[in-house]
Amino acid sequence: SRQIQWFPGHMTKTLRLMEKEIRNVDCVLQILDARIPLSSLNPEIERITAGKPHLYVLNKSDLADPEITRQWLAYFKSAGAGCIAMDSKQRGRATATKGLIEKELSALMERRRNRGMVGAAIRVMVVGIPNVGKSTFINQVAKRKSAKAGNRPGVTRGRQWVSVDAGLDLLDTPGILWPKFEDEATGLHLAFTGAVKDEVMDAETLACRLLELLAARYPNALEQRYQIPADLSGQGWELLEACGRKRGFLISGGEVDTERAAKMLVGEFRASKWGRLSLERPPQRDDMADFAEEDEE
Ligand code: GDP
After folding, report:
1. Starting from the edge strand earliest in sequence, which strands make up the sheet with 54-59, in order?
2. 88 lines ligand 1 (CB under 6 A)
């Protein structure tokens, strides 16, 4: 099977750095992409940071389906993990983040107060996949203006503490993936949203898979944006050609320039031109009920 492999050397270094620094922090805040919370949750980071309290931020929630984000929030909460939805490009998100951290770590803060450790700041390691919006998030929470924020995955940065205020320090870490994705869908979803470099995967294949997924989940969005019938669903190549033809992306002989159409489609998805879409839903209660029934038999 074709798997997307993306694990350059600096990511191994980052994992080692995290392993070393984990004992110096009070909790781990993992930034997820609200459109793909499962695929953007790094199992390597979970493994390395096990034993510390975990918090999750569903970032880019302004691009995700609001109803599905609500379901994800309920899902994480029912699993006992602190979680908030976030649009890091919006100002004034520091209060919500501090609220999440203070609520989740209230017992720890209480213990510290009782021991007279009044001045000790809460230290939070901030982790996430490349391009998930970690720099933007940290800048917004710490009210920083500077620091890197670009739409390019894989830019290396060193270990860096950022002080939010007297009570809270954030440890910034470079965005990383993991050596091998569990299934093809994970790799695809990471590629759709721009977490793996585009060079890793063929543009047309990427666009075909994206079109198939969206034709199944959001047929109206596809029809509205490209005026193509969604009954072509399941046939990525035909959808790609139809979209390209609608846009007039033709080469000699009236053939569709599928390469150009593919780049346009993926670009428009990333720029949220199709509306607010989520590619992954949490396991439904019904699924769990089915599971329970099977268990009883
Ligand atoms: P990093 O690689 O994780 O540090 O990601 P960056 O902070 O550099 O952000 C990657 C891209 O996502 C940039 O183009 C940001 O402007 C954009 N971005 C970050 N957070 C959000 C968000 O909450 N919503 C939207 N729409 N875009 C975001």
Report:
1. 82-85, 54-59, 27-33, 122-128, 168-172, 160-165
2. yes
Ligand 1 site, residue 59, Cβ cutoff 6 A: yes
115 CA distance to ligand 1 middle (Å): 40
Dihedral angle at the C-alpha atoms of 175, 176, 181, 182, nearest 10 degrees? -80
Q: Strands (DSSP E) along 173-216, which ranges?
A: none
Q: For residues 166 and 118, give the distance between their C-alpha atoms in angstroms, rounded to a whole number.
A: 11
pTM, two decimal places: 0.88
Question: Tens of pLDDT along 159-218?
Answer: 588 888 878 899 999 999 988 888 889 999 999 999 988 887 899 999 999 999 998 899
Cβ proximity of 211 and 45 under 8 Å: no
Rounded to the nearest whole angstrom, what is the distance from the C-alpha of residue 62 to the centroid of ligand 1? 11
pLDDT tens track for 251-278: 988 899 999 999 999 999 999 999 999 9
